[in-house]
Specification:
It is an enzyme of class 1 (oxidoreductase). By secondary structure, the chain is α+β, with helices and mostly antiparallel strands. The chain is built from three helices and four strands.
């Protein structure tokens, strides 16, 4: 299918507040601008748990992600979010390859609308 990789980091606002999560996300995202292989990232907030967040980043391929992850700047760049990681589920992050995908007119949007 595709070599693209998605990395999910589970984050919690418990004890720190939602603004702390948002501030850390924006700070890290600005630092990551121009990172080779990074296609983009999003901060998602749970509709079921107002303290639950997820950072989803998309990478060109696993090699690009691993090169960044093993590089010198990884730990310092992501430091603002590290204390906010949600470890209640075990691992606070996951790395996934895109196994299958639909796009275009086959994607259902909010409230059942199709585009």
């Amino acid at each position: 299918m595709s070599d693209r990789v998605r990395v999910l980091v589970f984050v919690t606002a418990v004890g720190a507040g939602a603004q702390a999560v948002e501030d850390a996300y924006h700070q890290i995202s600005r630092r990551l601008a121009g990172t080779p292989g990074l296609l983009g990232n999003e901060l998602l907030r749970s509709l079921h748990d107002s303290d639950g967040f997820l950072v989803l980043s998309e990478w060109r391929d696993l090699d690009a992600f691993r090169a960044w992850e093993e590089g010198e700047s990884h730990r310092s760049t992501t430091a603002p979010l590290r204390p906010l990681q949600d470890r209640s589920r075990g691992a606070s992050f996951g790395i996934y390859t895109v196994h299958a995908a639909y796009s275009g007119r086959t994607v259902a949007y909010a409230e059942g609308e199709m585009s």
